[in-house]
Amino acid sequence: MQFNTFVNHRLSLGRKKKTVNLALSVVRRILNLAARSWRHPESDLTWLETPPLITLLPVDDSRRAYTLEWEEQERLLKGMLSYLSQMALYKVNTGCREQEVCNLKWAWEWKTNLPELDGRIFIIPSSFRKKVRDRIMDDKIVVLNDIAKSVVDARRGIHKDYVFTYRGRKVQRMNNNGWRSAWRKAGLPINKDFLRGVHNLRHTFGTRLRLLGVSNETRRDLMGHTVGNMTSHYSVAGIMELLEAVQMLCKSRKSPALSIVKIRSGLQTA
């Protein structure tokens, strides 16, 4: 099948250009290896003389993340079962990715004798992050504000390995039927311009910190974009700075800037 035919077919099925690009990237990678690295065992020649040129599509149709206002967050959480509501509340106060929440282990909790940090730090190991993201990653520090800590404390003693479970088992994903039902019942946007999944919680976390004046470097560390080995990279003072930033989320309930953005968006809700 010619590449243009493949692309047009996938787009006709409603696939986003980013999704099509992911498939094209795999094919391009294989062809490049066949032309540059992989060799015939007898002739020692590469399987291709030159790789064909594959141009990725310009990504101009992606859905935008949706920033939740406080009232919208409350409506969303009320429409969920308790376990999912706890996970969502933890996620929107830590900025963790979905699988970082689903797989959160008690073994990752950082034990310390400092009262101000006791029960407030998790270290997500690089081995887990690399497995999920399929690239080299560093350890990630997760700092819990009062809200996130209360969620974790409420989960203590329920399961010996995992923080978040349902009916005795680890939750595989948050973006399930319960999430989608709660999203719609909360009157949140359902048009094709906005994401409707749990990534919106991480986006909301980052946006709220930015509106509160938290520096880009601190936001980057909290969201785990680029960090070093946490047990040696951060001093106690550095961790306290991160804690101070996320604690601001507990004190700020409204931001006029969020409403201004949404008035201009023309949202379609359920």
Question: Could you please describe the fold and organization of this structure?
Answer:
With 270 residues, the chain is mainly alpha-helical. It folds into 2 domains: 1-62; 70-263, hpI Integrase, Chain A (Orthogonal Bundle), CATH 1.10.443. It is 49% helix and 4% strand. It contains 13 helices and 4 strands. It has helices at 3-12, 17-36, 70-78, 82-94, 98-102, 126-133, 146-155, 177-185, 199-211, 216-223, 230-233, 236-251, 256-263; strands at 121-124, 140-143, 165-166, 169-170. The protein has a two-stranded antiparallel ribbon with strand order 1-2. Strands 3-4 form a two-stranded antiparallel ribbon. A hairpin with a 2-residue loop joins strand 3 (165-166) and strand 4. Helix 4 (82-94) packs antiparallel against helix 7 and helix 4 (82-94) packs parallel to helix 9. The longest helix is centred in the first third of the chain and has 20 residues, at 17-36. It is globular and about 65 Å long. The two termini are 40 Å apart. The model is unreliable at 227-232 (pLDDT under 50).
